[in-house]
Specification:
Elements: H1 2-12, H2 16-39, H3 43-64, H4 72-89, E1 90-94, E2 100-103
Helix pairs in contact: 1-2, 1-4, 2-3, 3-4
């Protein structure tokens, strides 16, 4: 969540270097998550994570090219996909703060 929010703020402020950094971080996190989901045999979560990793890669490319307008659509794709996957696969264990979750 925080990384996605930071990336969105960087896109809005037209800071290509920050967009690139945050998108690359997201890409790595989604790739790591896909591996975890694969081990848990949750193919829909694997597919979502890899789709988001690919979208983050598109954002990295756009930032490197200095074309942040083309980063908006893949950033929106990532943002919209989070809640749906979390609703299906995430269960709150502790209301926190900070909140803690487990994989359903």
């Amino acid at each position: 969540g925080p990384t996605q929010g930071a990336m969105r703020k960087a896109i809005d402020s037209k800071s290509a270097a920050d967009v690139e950094r945050e998108a690359a971080k997201l890409q790595g996190l989604f790739q790591k998550a896909a591996g975890v989901f694969k081990a848990l045999k949750a193919q829909d979560a694997v597919d979502a994570a890899m789709g988001n990793a690919n979208a983050a890669g598109e954002i990295v490319k756009a930032a490197k090219a200095g074309n942040l307008d083309s980063a908006t659509a893949p950033a929106t794709t990532i943002q919209k996909s989070c809640k749906g996957c979390h609703d299906v696969h995430r269960e709150e264990v502790s209301p926190g703060p900070p909140k803690t979750y487990k994989f359903k």
